Amino acid sequence: MNRSLFNTVCVAALTFGAAPLTAQETSNDDVFELGTIYIVGAKRPQDALSFPGTVAQADASELSGRGVQTVADLDRVFPGLAVDTRSSRVYSNFTLRGQSSLDYYSTSVQVYVDGLPQDPAVLAQMFPGALESAEVLYGPQGSLYGRGAVGGVINVTTLKPGEGDRFSYSLGGSEESYQAQLRGELQLAEGLWADFSLARNDVGDDLQVMGTGEDVGGTVEDRAQLRLRYAPEGSPLDITFSAACNEVESSEEQFVMGTALAARQAVPFPSKYSHDTNSFGLTVDYDLGWATFSSLTGYQDRFLDRTIFGSYTPEWQETLTQEFRLSSATGGPVEYVAGLFYSNSEFRREAYGSTTTQKTESYAAFGDLTWHATDRLDVVAGARWDFETTDATATGVVTMRGSDDWNAFSPKLGLSYSITPEWQAYGIVSSGFKAGGFTRTLTPANIAYTYDPATTWNGEAGLKYRSNNGTIEASVAAYYSVTEDYQMFVGTAPAQYLQNVGEVTAKGIDATLRINQGPWGLSGGATWGESRFTDYDSSATPGLSYQGNDVPYAPEFTARLAVDYTHELGAGRGRLIPRLGLSYQGDIWFDEANSIGQDGYWLVDAGLAWEMSNGAVLDLYATNLTDETYASYGFDASSYGLGDVYQLGRGREIGIRLTQRF
Questions:
Q1: ω into residue 161 within 30 of 0, thus cis?
Q2: What stretches of 329-453 adopt beta strand conformation (E)?
Q3: Which of 1.10.1040.10, 2.40.170.20, 1.10.10.60, 1.20.140.10 would CATH assign to domain 3-661?
Q4: pLDDT on residue 17
Q5: What Gene3D superfamilies has UniProt attached to this entry (predicted)?
Q6: What is the tens place of the pLDDT at every residue in 324-373?
């Protein structure tokens, strides 16, 4: 970020800080009573305490306070979630409880935005305008969501037009980067609302090319969104249409030799990309009184114009999704969600003299039911049926034509028991399915082109606590899962391809704690887990077994801690909120041979926010305060004469941000 823009933010902040402030109500109470927290991702209002499973939540203010600007940043907040930029954000790896998304075209962790599934290539996207909250639901969620999710779901929710502020802006940055966001909404007629948002996230270059000194490694992401909502007062009908476009220009796919990590010098191979995505959505909700009927239609098309290590590998994909869902009203002896899902995607990739095209159609029926057997005991049952078909062709150096289909039934059964109004125990067994297919990355080095479906069985038991006034929340859970015919990319980077590699077993324990007591706020969690190959057989390495090795990108330990303190400045002066955030990611491996990886490391974030009573917030922030050097990806580049090369995470950034809502 240039100094003139940085100075502009500072001047604007001082201007708003000096403006007359209206009186602000303050409380001298030592305890802030909190309302019941409901899980949006449960598809019907459900108390987080009674939900039979592990769920983590954070609202927009909490995410902003930690400097979380994108979905990929959520691992700084949620324990057990690890997000690693695997070459680029397009192929980001989301790992949840040992379930790594090693197939980056069909990830085990799904991301939903306002009920619509997102293309795997945009999972790490910048948050949309009017962000309300983000949730993580751990474990298979196929009985709740149209698109199956073996590892879990990240559910991002925004305020609908007519529910948010009339106008808001955010402007901030550091010496290297800057962010800007603008949002406004307008009532066009009775019951008809519109809103728009514009945003830019400019992440500056942080590496230099060996030999030339050229600055590289930066990314610019632009986002524009327009939404219309028709929701007459007193009417059971609520319709929202959205249209958005994202444009990314990046040179982040840079790699550093092991001997040049401290110098942050990238090897001199051309690597850059642009990624354009258009997204459209139509959501219709109709309140029947006894239930709500919902129709959710989504369409996304994307074009990845990519050069990696001097090789040109562009991709195109179009995806249409349709979900019909019926969600019961709350309060009865039985509550349920039932739905139908359809997806149609067309994919094309050009690389290494071959063109790959695939058309995939998916159908699913799903349902989730809670029976309140007594005033303390709930019985939960769910099921999902999947059917998927793929037609694949390849022309050029490698030729191929094939088609196949797969289907599966995935059940779920659990219990939730209220020991006391403050304590809840639960246990659940669930399953997930990931269809087979044809690898999309074809090269003459491929030994095989098809792969079989993968199935996962997951067991979980846990204990939750919430104090009567809601100021203290805690949970502990143990899980165990087995995946048969595990799918992952094998072979030599960057010419890898998808195959089955055998059986993976993941087990672990996670614990969370949240306290809001007087001016103090504390939230944190820790996880221990093992995710290992308990049987290994790959076509890429016949006769070679990695049984007993750790699954790539699955850390054994993770920990998160955030502490803040609210200091009231007095009537009309607002309040100051200093904060500190710590996140730890344990050792991870980047390959199944466990030959190249990253040791565990801590990241420290800090900040000081001045919340003014006129709606403005001035925030001084620091990310990676200790300037930790760490790798998010690496591979053996001996074929290029380089040895092991790594992609580095961002270094220290100190900046200022001004936000105001009207």
A1: no
A2: 334-351, 354-372, 377-396, 400-418, 423-434, 437-438, 450-451
A3: 2.40.170.20
A4: 40
A5: TonB-dependent receptor, beta-barrel domain (2.40.170.20)
A6: 999 999 889 999 999 999 999 999 999 888 899 999 999 999 999 999 99
Residue 419: pLDDT over 70: yes
pLDDT tens digits, residue range 598-651? 999 999 999 999 999 888 999 999 999 999 999 999 998 888 888 899 999 999
- What does the alpha-carbon distance between residue 638 and residue 645 come to, in Å, rounded to a whole number? 9
The answer for residues whose C-beta is within 8 angstroms of residue 331's C-beta and 6 or more apart is none
Q: Which two tokens stand for residue 614?
A: 């006129």
517-560 per-position pLDDT tens digit: 899 999 999 999 999 999 998 877 788 889 999 999 999 999 99
Report the sign of the C-alpha dihedral through residues 102, 113, 473, 27, in that order. positive
Please write the tens of the pLDDT for every residue from 50-109. 888 888 888 888 888 777 888 888 988 888 898 888 888 898 888 998 888 888 888 889
First to last CA, the chain: 27
**Is there a contact between 657 and 174 (Cβ–Cβ < 8 Å)?**
no
| Closest residue by Cα to residue 593 from 550, 639, 530 | 550
Q: Could you read off the pLDDT of 115-159 as tens digits, one per residue?
A: 999 999 998 888 888 899 999 999 888 888 888 788 899 999 999
Rounded to whole angstroms, how far apart are CA atoms 652 and 629? 9
Largest Cα span, the chain: 75
Amino acid at residue number 379? V
| Amino acid sitting at position 173 | G
Structure tokens at 328: 């019961």
Taking phi over 0 as left and psi of -120 to 50 as alpha, with beta for the rest, 263 belongs to: alpha
DSSP 80-109: TEEEE-SSSGGGPEEEETTB---STTS-SE
Query: Phi and psi (nearest 5°) for 6?
Result: -60, -45
DSSP state of 69: -
Does residue 302 register a pLDDT over 60? yes
Q: Identify the residue whose tokens are 């009532």.
A: 187
pTM of the model: 0.89
Nearest-Å Rg of the Cα atoms of the chain is 24
The per-residue b/e assignment along 17-31, b for 16 or more CB within 10 angstroms, e otherwise, is beeebeebeeeeeee
> In the predicted model, is pLDDT for residue 23 greater than 50?
no
Q: Is the bond into 494 cis (omega within 30 degrees of 0)?
A: yes
**Strands (DSSP E) found in 544-652:** 557-565, 567-568, 575-585, 588-589, 597-598, 601-611, 616-623, 631-636, 644-648
Cα(514)–Cα(471) distance, integer angstroms: 8
Q: Quote the CA–CA distance of 326 and 289 in Å, as a whole number.
A: 12
pLDDT at residue 37, rounded to an integer: 54
Q: Number of H helices and number of E strands within the chain?
A: 2, 43
Domain boundaries, the chain: 3-661
> Which residue, 97, 88, 127, is CA-closest to 111?
127
Q: How far apart are CA 202 and CA 173, in angstroms?
A: 9
HSE-CB for 404 with a 13 A CA cutoff: 14
Backbone angles phi, psi at 62, to 5 degrees: -65, -40
The CA distance from 73 to 77, in Å, is 8
Are 417 and 428 in contact by the 8 Å Cβ rule? The answer is no
Q: How far apart are CA 656 and CA 543, in angstroms?
A: 56
Q: What pLDDT is recorded for position 638?
A: 86
The Cβ of residue 235 has, within 10 Å, a number of other Cβ atoms equal to 11
State both tokens at 28: 């001298």
